[in-house]
Specification:
Layout (H helix, E strand, L loop, with lengths): L11 H13 L17 H10 L1 H17 L6 E6 L4 E6 L1 H10 L9 H4 L3 H8 L3 E3 L12 E9 L5 E10 L6 H39 L3 E6 L4 E4 L1 H7 L10 H4 L7 H5 L4 E10 L2 E13 L5 E10 H11 L16 H14 L5 E4 L6 H10 L8 E5 L5 H9 E2 L12 E2 L1 H4 L4 E5 L6 H13 L1 E2 L8 E2 L3 E6 L3 H6 L5 H7 L2 E4 L9 H16 L6 E2 L1 H9 L5 H15 L4 E2 L12 H10 L5 H15 L4 H8 L3 H14 L13
Helix pairs in contact: 3-7, 12-13, 19-21, 24-25
Keywords: ATP-binding, Nucleotide-binding, Transcription, Transcription regulation
Pfam families: AAA_lid_14, HTH_8, Sigma54_activat
GO molecular function: ATP binding; sequence-specific DNA binding
Length: about 650
Amino acid sequence: MKYALPSENMRQEILQRSYMRSRTYGISPDQKCAPESSRLKPRDLDHLRQANKVLLELVLRQMGVLHQILVDSSYAMAIADKEGYILEVTGHRAMLDEYRIRKCLPGYRWTERDVGTCSIGLVLTEKRPIMLLEGEMFNQHAAHVTNSAAPIFDHRDIFLGVLNISGPASATHLHTLGLVIQATATIRAQLAEIENQQNMALKDQYLMVLLESDRRGIIALDKNGCIVHHNTKARKMLCLPEDAIGAPLDAVVASSFKIQPFSAQKRGFSEREISYRVQGQMRSFVATLDPVTLPNGRFAGSLLLLVEKQQVINLVNSLSGVQAKFSFKSIISRSKELEKTLQYCRQAAKSPSPVLLFGETGTGKELFAQAIHNASDRRGKPFISINCGAIPRELLESELFGYEEGAFTGASRKGHPGKLELAHHGTLFLDEVGDMPLDMQVKLLRVLQSGEVHRLGSRTPLHLDFRVIAATNVDLKLSMRNKEFREDLFYRISTFFIKIPPLREREGDIELLANFFLKRFSGTLGRADMSFSPEALELLLRYSWPGNVRQLESIVERTVNLCQRNVIEPGDLDMPQELPASAMREVEEEDAHSTLDDVCYRYIARLMRAEHDNIRRVAAILDISRQTLYRKLEVMALRGIYQLPGARLSHD
C-alpha cells in the first residue's frame, strides 16, 4: 500500500491535523469508498434537499459557472450540507466516474470518521478553505486526485455546508481553490440579498395589511400630487376609477380644496375639512396631508389620510359624553298626574316629530327629553343639548350653525362644526328656546323647513337629519302675542306639546323623592342610616317648591352635608327665606287674573328681594343661567314689575 503510511511529501499540517485523527478512527487506507452505513434513505435525502432548497439552487448556479470556466478540464464538483451529506455532484464524466467508484454521491456522508482525511471532512472540522494535494488523501485509491474545498457561510456567519472541486493531480492549479472561495463568497452575498428581498416583501405585506386594516382612507402621492397608491378604504370613499394610479388626485376627483399646491410647496396640513364630489354629491372628510422626505432630506411626496366627517363627529360625541343617559325608568314618581305625562312622552318617542316640553324651572325637562330620545329609534345616536338662553347672542349663531375658516375675526383656522351638525342622525335639544333671539328664530326655522344648514362663511349646504326636542318655562303663546317668539316656529317645534307638572302638583312624589335623594347622598357620605323626622317631612310637604325637583334635590344634599344627627329635624332643613307655601298662594291670589308671565315675573321679584338682589343665588334657585335672569329682569323693569337695581346687583 503506497499510502498506508503518510507519504514523505505530505505537509506536516495535514499529517498533524487530520491524518493521525483518521488512523485513530480505525479507517483502512485501502477503503475504496464511503461506507453504506453513512448513506441516507431516499426519502431522507429528499427531505434534506428540500430543507436546503435555497442553498442548493444557489450552489448549482455557481457550479454551472465553474463548469464553464473549467470546461476543458477533468474536474467534478460536489456540495455537502453542514453534516457532510452530499447533496449534488456535477462535472466532467471521467471525474464523475471516480465519484461513483468512491461513493461521493448524493445521500452519502463524507467526514473524517467515514472516509478519513478528505477536503470536505477537513472543512467540516476547521471551517476554512482547504486544498489537498496528490497523496494527501487518506484513501490510497485517491492518490492521483487533488481537492479544493471551501466552507459556505451565510451573511450572519452561520455555517451551511461545503463546496468541493476534485480533479486529476496532473492538472492541479492553485487558482482552483481561489475559484471555490470566490464561488462561496458569491453564494454568501446572494443569500444576504435573498433574505433582504424576503424581508422587504414581508415588510411590504405587513404594510399592505396595515393599510387595508386602517379605518382611514390612505392615498400615497408623489411630489407632483399624482396617486402612487391607495388602500381599498380610500377607493371606496372617493369612488376612485381603476386607472387612478399615476393620475393627479385633483384631476381624478373634484374637491373644495386642492392638494397640488401643497405638494408643490413641499408642505402639508392637519385635520382640515375637505368636501369631495362623489357620485354627484359632495361628501365631507377630515383630511391630513403629511409630507414624506427621504433620509437625505429630499421631498418624495405626501401621504393623504381621510376620515369621513360623520365618523369624526361620532367619535367626538362619544368621547365628550353627548349621549343621553336617562330613560323613563330614571323618572321617579307615583303621581297619577305625572303618569299621564309619561304616557304622552312614550307616544312622542315613537314618532320622529318635534316635541316641545313646557314646565317650570327645575321640573327636569332635559331628563324627559333624554328619556324620549332613548325610547326612540335614534337611541345610541348623539343627543346634543344647547341652552339658548345661556349663550351670548353674538355667539349663538356660530354655536348652532358652525363656521368655516376665516368666517370672522378669531375663527379657528380649521373651521368648526355647529351643534346642528353634531346632532346629525340624533336629537337636538333646545333648552330655554323661549329666550332665543328673533333673528336666530328665523334662521332656525329655515333649517327645520329645508333640512339644510349653511356654516357661517360657507356657500355649500349641509344636508342634515336630526329631531328637535325643545323646552321652555316661558308661556310661548303670550310671547307670540308680544311679538317675542315667532308663531311659525312655535308650530314647527310643537307637534307634541307636553306639559310637565310642577312638583307641588305631583301627589306623593315629594316624600318619595326626598327619601330617594336622602338615601343617595347619605350613602355617598357613608351615613346610610339617616332619615327624616315626621315634622321635617311635614315641612317638606307644606313647602311650595318653586324650584321643583332640582330645588328639593339641592336642599336634601345640603342638609345631609350639614346635619350632624341621623334623624333630620325641621331646623336642619336649610329652606330659602320667605318661600313658605303661603308665599306662592299669596302670589296666586294676588295675580289670579294676570298672565303666566306676569305671575313668574312677580315671583322672581319676590325672590330678588328675599335674597337681597343676589343674582347668583336667585339664578341657582330658579335653575337658570345668569344671562337668562338678567334678560328677565330687564323685561320686568320695562313692565314696571321690578326696578333693576343696577349698581346694587350682587354677584357673590
